[in-house]
């Protein structure tokens, strides 16, 4: 990463190959439209190059940093598209707030990683729904609360508890 | 009295607890922008919260990796091509450095290219030094080098006999040279230098009665302490050379600036 920050294009190519499939995968999960996802993923990769000097190893791995930038940008894209749609009609929001069973269940069945699937099973229903709707659907915790018909404070704590369980189950060390 | 103390303790605790419960939503990007800012501010003060968020981010990274999807093939080429025209942002300037706004207001007030360039260069070097220091021990050497370079710049610029000349390159950049004959050293400042083509670099030359002596390489804008002693040089030249530089100029100079006597 230090080489990327010094403008080393070869090092950046290696970084590209290491993270691009995850970046594209998470963007596609949230944005859904393939052409738009490609656009967003491309912006993320160029942003990684541009901001390489700001990478702080104290805050986690390069991979996790790339994922975070990708997730944030995808969520921004969806939310700003929604805000635009919201002004005309409520269509986009309602579309994304389909009942849990419809959406989240399907997402989980497609998870490629065995470990993630196994650990997801150890969460309570509400924990799993809260984490999944927020991370894979890009909903805010208020939207999650609305969708699940659960009070706001409960959703906040379930997200945190869910992540704690996932973290411990996966043996993640930051 | 005891009740009141307890009450105050609760009051103090409450905002922290409230924000702390948001670390999960924060790591999942599930906060609206205003609350995101509040948690950011809280994280700056709360080390355990930062650790927790780091662990959650690593967990989220696994969730993302679980939905990994092969990226479209054409994307690789367009990204690698695209970055050629994208400039990397400079490293963070540490909190102790002059805030950016005051740098720019000083630039505006003085209207001086040189002051502007030296402040920016100084801040950038300080940033590089601080950033590299946090990396491995290997790069502490580089940090020391950067610090030394900054020292070189300041010693020339603050020399009692320092004099400045300004010029322009044929490719449109503003340049300035500060020279101290007493120290035998000079500093070059470039603003608006286009990035050299791949495999090329800018090279500085001291012109000593028509003989050009190599005086160091540079890749981009900024202030550099020119390598070597001014000696009897009467001008400073700038050319584009192959990477690594040349022993004598191989292209027409972009600039030949007469040095102060």
UniProtKB/TrEMBL annotation, chain A:
Tell me the keywords, alphabetical order.
Sigma factor, Transcription, Transcription regulation
| Secretion signal span | none
Region Disordered, as annotated, extends over: 81-101
Q: Where is the RNA polymerase sigma-70 region domain?
A: 15-81
Q: Which SUPFAM superfamilies match?
A: Sigma2 domain of RNA polymerase sigma factors (SSF88946), Sigma3 and sigma4 domains of RNA polymerase sigma factors (SSF88659)
The UniProt GO MF terms for this protein read: DNA binding; sigma factor activity
Known Gene3D superfamilies for this protein? Answer: 1.10.1740.10, Winged helix-like DNA-binding domain superfamily/Winged helix DNA-binding domain (1.10.10.10)
Q: Which Pfam families match?
A: Sigma70_r2, Sigma70_r4_2
Q: Which residues form the RNA polymerase sigma factor 70 region 4 type domain?
A: 114-166
- Offer one example of a GO biological process linked to this entry: DNA-templated transcription initiation
User: Family, per the entry?
Assistant: Belongs to the sigma-70 factor family. ECF subfamily.
Question: Sorted alphabetically, which NCBIfam families does this protein's record hold?
Answer: PRK09646.1 (NF007228), sigma70-ECF (TIGR02937)
Q: What is this protein called?
A: Sigma-70 family RNA polymerase sigma factor
Q: Give the taxonomic lineage as stored in the record.
A: Bacteria, Bacillati, Actinomycetota, Actinomycetes, Kitasatosporales
UniProtKB/TrEMBL annotation, chain B:
Q: What does the record give under GO molecular function?
A: sigma factor antagonist activity
User: Keywords of this protein's UniProt record, alphabetized?
Assistant: Cell membrane, Membrane, Transcription, Transcription regulation, Transmembrane, Transmembrane helix
Which cellular component appears as one GO term in the record?
plasma membrane
Membrane topology term reads:
Single-pass membrane protein
What would be one Pfam family of this protein? RskA_C
**Which Gene Ontology BP terms does the record give?**
regulation of translation
Which spans are transmembrane here?
113-133
Please classify the protein's predominant subcellular localization into one broad category: membrane
Show where the Anti-sigma K factor RskA C-terminal domain sits: 119-253
What is the name attached to this protein's record?
Answer: Regulator of SigK
Question: Ranges for the Anti-sigma-K factor RskA N-terminal domain?
Answer: 19-50
Q: Tell me where in or outside the cell this protein is found.
A: Cell membrane; Membrane
């Amino acid at each position: 990463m230090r080489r990327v920050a010094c403008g080393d294009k070869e090092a950046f190519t290696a970084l590209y190959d290491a993270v691009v499939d995850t970046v594209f995968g998470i963007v596609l999960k949230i944005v859904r439209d393939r052409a738009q996802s490609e656009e967003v993923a491309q912006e993320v990769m160029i942003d990684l190059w541009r901001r390489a000097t700001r990478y702080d190893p104290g805050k986690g791995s390069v991979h996790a940093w790339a994922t975070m930038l990708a997730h944030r940008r995808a969520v921004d894209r969806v939310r700003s598209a929604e805000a635009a749609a919201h002004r005309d009609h409520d269509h986009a929001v309602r579309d994304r707030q389909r009942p849990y069973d419809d959406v989240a269940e399907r997402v989980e069945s497609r998870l490629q990683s065995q470990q993630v699937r196994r650990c997801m099973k150890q969460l309570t229903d509400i924990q799993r729904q809260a984490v999944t709707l927020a991370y894979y659907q890009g909903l805010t915790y208020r939207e999650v609360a609305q969708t699940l018909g659960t009070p706001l404070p409960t959703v906040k704590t379930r997200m945190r508890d869910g992540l704690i369980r996932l973290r411990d189950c996966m043996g993640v060390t930051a | 009295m005891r009740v009141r103390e307890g009450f105050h303790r609760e009051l103090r605790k409450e905002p922290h607890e409230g924000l702390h419960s948001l670390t999960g939503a924060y790591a999942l990007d599930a906060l609206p922008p205003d609350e995101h800012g509040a948690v950011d501010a809280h994280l700056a003060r709360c080390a355990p919260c930062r650790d927790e968020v780091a662990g959650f981010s690593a967990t989220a990274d696994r969730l993302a990796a679980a939905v990994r999807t092969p990226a479209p093939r054409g994307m690789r080429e367009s990204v690698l091509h695209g970055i050629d025209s994208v400039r990397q942002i400079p490293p963070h300037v540490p909190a102790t450095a002059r805030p950016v706004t005051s740098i720019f207001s000083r630039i505006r007030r003085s209207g001086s290219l040189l002051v502007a360039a030296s402040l920016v260069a100084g801040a950038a070097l300080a940033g590089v030094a601080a950033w590299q220091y946090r990396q491995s021990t290997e790069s502490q050497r580089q940090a020391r080098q950067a610090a030394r370079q900054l020292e070189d710049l300041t010693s020339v610029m603050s020399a009692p006999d320092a004099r400045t000349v300004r010029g322009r390159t044929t490719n449109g950049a503003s340049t300035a040279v500060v020279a101290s004959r007493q120290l035998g050293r000079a500093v070059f400042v470039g603003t608006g230098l286009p990035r050299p083509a791949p495999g090329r670099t800018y090279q500085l030359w001291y012109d000593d009665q028509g003989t050009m002596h190599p005086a160091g390489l540079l890749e981009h804008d900024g202030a550099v302490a020119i390598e070597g002693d001014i000696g009897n040089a009467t001008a400073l030249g700038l050319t584009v050379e192959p990477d690594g530089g040349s022993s004598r100029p191989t292209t027409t100079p972009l600039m030949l600036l007469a040095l102060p006597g």
